[in-house]
């Protein structure tokens, strides 16, 4: 028996490498193993945590602009250069058939195979949707909703309100005890622009109001709260929950009497997180898995039963929220009285969209999930990277502070969203962070048409991965790509400043982002619909944070602690010292 197995394995291995040597369009790449391909090198078997960008970037250094890997038996072609990616993702813009119609559908590449069917994501929502007309309808509704000026204005105000809540928690955290911290603090030195600045900060001296926080945890709770509130119209209390967790031994300052509310909301959030986890498992773990194993999918389903239950529980809860809100809207006599939260915008725009049919409750639920799953972690992680880089480069940080201070007389003033367009330098810094450290470093696609890419003809069904990280750090497109240099984006922004004085009307009419060679939000037909929204949220968060606090890394030599999972570069921990800028008491 053992002999037969060994013999079969040897025959299979010979056959496998024979087929491999005869593959169409051979490209450079690491040698795959039978059955698992290159997954052992990606750390796939270690629950995604170790799938590292590093390995992919090493492959890019070794094999160049286009190479291949295998995920089980699935061949994946990697694209690492702007022109190849651009041609691939934006081809749809130019193709017109004999009847003068755009052949948009031909370029409606998919992101995954049919595994996601189980969760209905293959025919609903946007990101994983396989049905062209349903995808187009939903994307249009989401796009219109996230660009509605009324919604944008409101989210900027809500972010400010919520930031006040965050500050209240920070105020109640015990300040640093100078003696205990002096020994392990290695704070970056001040710069010439520090002295110019009215903060009068000497970073090496501890002050009585210095606080040490893990900003990655706080900001994740902050974005979770703001997105959930915008979609459910209920407070989700995840900041409050986190506050109580870290104050567990401090009975005096801990929030009391609201444990039942916190527990209830915690359950809601954990079910939402389980739904998200399941979705990403489907997307990644099953790609390339041979059909034979997929037949045993039932085993997988039983094993992860709890996650499936949570997924549908969360779905049903959102459905109830939509129905209740619809009723409220229909009972509301004046549209202007309605709040412009995301749910109201989706329902309202869905009632009078360009396609002449109303959006169903279920469609709205899938869009809500899209808004939450795509929005929360992308924003919170990007904000952490911004904090990290500005701490690493204090001169840049103080220039941002100067720009922010020049726009407001009073740090407690509420600001409107169109004033954000005047923060050219801050915008350039955010873009540079998005370039050097993309939160979503890879874009995957499956061809639905025979296609010529990189000088080779590929068959329908071929999987591609576009390596945004490599593209953003490619020497042929960027000068000194390894340098963190916001100036590279400033030229465009200064030109914008010259064009005309901005007023609210102009700002609403103009797209927020300029066309520049940044691919962070993807490109072409399936690019991110929330670029403007993301920039507005990020800028608002930066203004709120920097006009009140100076921020310093706990360890100036700290490397970012990033784990790649759920398709994102996730910031695991970022310990910083925050110091209120306008208290001048030195200890
Ligand atoms: C810093 C923030 C963000 C980044 C870097 C980002 C990045 C991306 C990228 C790279 C893609 C894939 C593009 C592709 O495959 O070609 C994408 C798609 C998408 N994003 Fe974002 N995103 C961000 C924020 C958001 C937010 C706040 C939302 C919430 C509305 C959102 C909703 C979506 C959706 C629905 C898609 C799928 C679009 C489609 O398939 O047509 N994103 N995003």
Please describe the structure with a list of short key phrases separated by commas or semicolons.
587 residues; binds protoporphyrin IX containing FE; alpha+beta; 22 helices; single chain; 11 strands; Cytochrome p450; four-stranded mixed beta sheet
Summarize, please:
Belongs to the cytochrome P450 family. InterPro entries: Cyt_P450, Cyt_P450_CS, Cyt_P450_E_grp-I, Cyt_P450_sf. With 587 residues, the protein is an alpha+beta fold.
Description:
- By secondary structure, this protein is of the alpha+beta class.
- It has a domain of 402 residues: Cytochrome p450, CATH 1.10.630.
- The chain is built from 22 helices and 11 strands.
- The strands form 4 sheets. A 4-stranded mixed β-sheet has the order 1-2-7-4.
- The longest helix has 32 residues.
- The protein starts with a helix and ends in a 7-residue tail after the last strand.
- Bound molecules: protoporphyrin IX containing FE (HEM).
- The site of protoporphyrin IX containing FE has 25 residues, from α5, α16 and α22.
């Amino acid at each position: 028996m053992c002999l037969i197995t060994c013999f079969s394995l040897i025959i299979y291995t010979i056959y496998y490498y024979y087929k491999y040597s005869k593959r169409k369009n051979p490209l450079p790449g690491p040698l795959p193993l039978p059955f698992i391909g290159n997954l052992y090198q990606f750390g796939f078997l270690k629950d995604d945590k170790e799938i590292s960008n590093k390995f992919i970037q090493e492959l890019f250094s070794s094999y160049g602009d286009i190479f291949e890997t295998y995920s089980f038996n699935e061949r994946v072609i990697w694209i690492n250069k702007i022109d190849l990616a651009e041609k691939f993702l934006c081809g749809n813009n130019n193709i017109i058939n004999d009847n003068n119609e755009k052949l948009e559908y031909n370029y409606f590449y998919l992101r995954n195979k049919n595994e996601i069917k189980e969760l209905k994501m293959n025919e609903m929502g946007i990101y994983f949707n396989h049905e062209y007309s349903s995808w187009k309808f939903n994307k249009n509704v989401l796009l219109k909703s996230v660009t509605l000026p009324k919604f944008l204005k409101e989210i900027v105000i809500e972010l400010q309100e919520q930031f006040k809540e965050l500050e209240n928690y920070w105020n109640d955290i015990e300040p640093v005890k100078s003696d205990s911290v002096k020994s392990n603090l290695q704070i970056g030195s001040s710069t010439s622009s520090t002295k110019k600045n009215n903060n009068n900060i000497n970073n090496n001296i501890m002050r009585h109001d210095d606080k040490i926080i893990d900003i990655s945890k706080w900001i994740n709770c902050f974005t979770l709260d703001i997105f959930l509130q915008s979609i459910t119209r209920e407070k989700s209390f995840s900041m409050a929950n986190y506050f109580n967790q870290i104050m567990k031994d401090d009975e005096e300052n801990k929030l009391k009497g609201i444990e039942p509310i916190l527990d209830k909301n915690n359950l809601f959030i954990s079910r939402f997180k389980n739904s998200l986890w399941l979705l990403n498992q489907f997307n990644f773990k099953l790609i390339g898995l041979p059909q034979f194993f997929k037949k045993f999918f039932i085993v997988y389903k039983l094993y992860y039963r709890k996650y499936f239950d949570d997924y549908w529980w969360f779905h049903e809860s959102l459905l109830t929220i939509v129905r209740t809100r619809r009723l409220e809207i229909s009972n509301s006599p004046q549209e202007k009285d309605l709040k412009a939260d995301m749910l109201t915008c989706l329902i309202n725009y869905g009632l009078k969209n360009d396609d002449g049919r109303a959006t169903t409750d279920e469609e709205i639920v899938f869009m809500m999930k899209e808004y939450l799953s795509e929005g929360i972690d992308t924003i919170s992680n990007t904000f952490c990277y911004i904090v990290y880089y500005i701490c690493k480069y204090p001169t840049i940080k103080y220039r941002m502070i100067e720009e922010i201070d020049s726009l407001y007389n009073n740090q407690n003033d509420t600001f409107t969203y169109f004033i954000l367009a005047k923060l050219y330098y801050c915008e350039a810094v955010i873009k540079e962070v998005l370039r050097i450290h993309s939160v979503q470093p890879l874009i995957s696609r499956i061809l639905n048409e025979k296609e010529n890419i990189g000088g080779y003809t590929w068959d329908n069904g071929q999987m591609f991965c576009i390596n945004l990280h490599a593209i953003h750090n490619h020497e042929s497109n960027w000068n000194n790509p390894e340098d963190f240099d916001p100036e590279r984006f400033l030229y465009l922004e200064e030109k914008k400043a010259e064009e005309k004085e901005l007023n609210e009307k102009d700002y609403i009419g103009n797209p927020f982002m300029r066309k520049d060679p940044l691919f962070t939000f993807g490109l072409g037909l399936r690019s991110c619909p929330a670029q403007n929204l993301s920039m507005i949220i990020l800028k608002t968060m930066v203004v709120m944070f920097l006009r009140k606090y100076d921020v310093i890394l706990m360890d100036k030599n700290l490397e970012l602690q990033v784990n790649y999972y759920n398709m994102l570069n996730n910031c695991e921990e970022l310990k910083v010292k925050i110091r209120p800028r306008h208290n001048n008491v030195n200890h």
